[in-house]
Design a protein that fits this description.
Layout lengths: L1 E14 L2 E14 L3 E5 L6 H8 L7 E6 L2 E2 L5 H11 E5 L10 H6 L11 H14 L15 H13 L5 E5 L7 H18 L2 E5 L3 H6 L2 E6 L2 E2 L5 H8 L6 E2 L2
Parallel strand pairs: 3-8, 3-9, 6-7, 7-8
Antiparallel strand pairs: 1-2, 1-4, 4-5, 9-10, 9-11
Helix pairs in contact: 4-5, 5-6
The structure holds adenosine-5'-triphosphate (ATP) and magnesium ion.
The site of adenosine-5'-triphosphate has 12 residues, from strand 1, strand 2 and helix 1.
């Protein structure tokens, strides 16, 4: 079953008189339950593509179906609804609110989506998620009182509060040391394997990319074509094509 289908997506930014074409016809399908990494040089359009997938931005042209819904045809209000209900985001710099406890960071997105939950139910759901990411004893801590890896785990719990089928992470380990990166990466794998959440990870880190079953490589505004046969595996280390790496 397909969760994401992109058909010939283009994105051109306009800077005054100048057009900046970034995505030049991206077609891509991601199945429910996949964990894939997205790699490519700096400036190749990874974040641009993630913003479109996350319904934060619209493509210039092309079609985007998310769970069978045609997102490209939606109004911005409809897209906001899809974004809040179906997509969790994790960013490189955690994007937590200062001077706010871990528990409140995680509860907050429910305000837009789950009016039917009582305060007590909302709190219980957030507590369960913080326990799930190993922060049961840090619920009252503010970001300045948490390590980088702990802050990223708060961000992951927050991304999951609306039970989204899709988790998009843009360089989630970019600000973490290698040991902490490994722990956060392990968290994504667990969520994928145990909860069936579809995960797409943007990364520069070859170890993170190689941990995904599938690596999608973007180059010159296009997804590099998968290669056939042995080359797939030989080229996997070079990250030069869309190849299974595990
Ligand atoms: N709002 C914008 N207006 C104009 N140009 C933009 C805008 N956002 C991004 N770009 C340009 O689009 C290109 C792709 O940017 P993007 O942020 O998607 O790259 P990236 O692959 O995520 O890079 P990095 O690995 O450094 O995060 C860049 O050349 C950038 O300058
Ligand atoms: Mg980026």
């Amino acid at each position: 079953m397909e969760l994401i289908r992109l058909d010939n997506i283009t994105k051109t930014y306009h800077m005054g008189e100048i057009d900046v074409p970034v995505l030049k016809g991206v077609s891509l399908s991601i199945a429910k339950g996949e964990l894939a990494s997205l790699t490519g040089a700096s400036g190749s359009g990874k974040s641009t593509l993630m913003n479109i997938l996350g319904c934060l931005d619209r493509p210039t042209s092309g079609q985007y179906w998310l769970d069978g819904q045609n997102v490209a045809g939606m109004s911005s209000d409809q897209r906001a609804l899809v974004r809040n209900r179906s997509i969790g985001f994790v960013f490189q710099n955690f994007n937590l609110l200062p001077r706010t406890s871990a528990l409140h960071q995680v509860i907050m997105p429910l305000a837009y989506t789950a009016a039917e939950l009582s305060d007590r139910q909302a709190r219980q759901r957030a507590q369960a998620l913080l326990e799930r990411v190993g922060l049961g004893d840090r619920m009252d801590h503010e970001p300045s009182q948490l390590s980088g890896g702990q802050q990223q785990r708060v961000a992951i719990a927050r991304a999951l509060i609306n039970k989204p089928p899709l988790l998009l992470a843009d360089e989630p380990t970019g600000n973490l040391d290698s040991h902490t990166s490994q722990e956060v990466l392990e968290m994504f794998h667990q969520l994928n394997e145990q909860e069936g959440i579809t995960v797409l990870l943007v990364t520069h880190d070859p170890t993170v990319a190689a941990s995904a079953r599938r690596t999608i490589h973007i180059s010159d505004g296009l997804i590099a074509a998968p290669r056939d046969g042995q080359d797939q595996f030989r080229l996997a280390g070079a990250g030069s094509a869309e190849v299974p790496t595990r």
